[in-house]
Amino acid sequence: MEIPPSSPEGSERSPQSKELVTSNTGSTLCMSSRSESVWTSASRSKWDIYHKPVIVLSVGAAVFLFGTVITSLSCFLTQNEKVYKMSGPAFLSLGLMLLVCGLVWIPIIRKKQKQRQKSQFLQSLKSFFFNR
């Protein structure tokens, strides 16, 4: 087993200073934060902001249209009429639910963006006046 040579600088430092040098609490806090946008000031594109509700909206519209087709098939085809009558409304309701969720999600994101812009503006004003 090899013992590393001790440097004179390391022995002169107090245990508290070693802890301060090796401590990464600020950077770990920043990296482990749930919302990175609070810590970074980089602006995001519209797609980065709205991609999840747009995807939910699109899938909801597709499932709703599929449910409409399945339900209309029950009127024209008499072969598997019970299957179409049971699965058609299920797809209709699932698609409508996703469609409404996507439509409601977009205004919520807009409201959050406005609040975030206001809070950043107020923080910059506060730092401007109190850091003099």
TrEMBL record:
Top-rank taxon, per record: Eukaryota
Say yes or no: keyword Membrane present. Answer: yes
Annotated InterPro entries: PIRT (IPR028068)
Q: Where is the composition biased (Polar residues)?
A: 19-29
Q: Name one GO cellular component term.
A: plasma membrane
The UniProt annotation puts the region (Disordered) at: 1-29
Localization, per the record, is: Membrane
| Pfam families per record | PIRT (PF15099)
State the Gene Ontology terms under molecular function: phosphatidylinositol bisphosphate binding; transmembrane transporter binding
Q: Does the keyword NAD apply?
A: no
What topology does it adopt in the membrane? Multi-pass membrane protein
Q: Which UniProt keywords apply?
A: Membrane, Transmembrane, Transmembrane helix
Q: Where are the transmembrane segments?
A: 54-79, 91-109
Q: Which PANTHER family match?
A: PHOSPHOINOSITIDE-INTERACTING PROTEIN, PHOSPHOINOSITIDE-INTERACTING PROTEIN FAMILY MEMBER
| Descriptive protein name | PIRT protein
**Species the sequence originates in:** Helopsaltes ochotensis (Middendorff's grasshopper-warbler)
Report the gene name.
Pirt
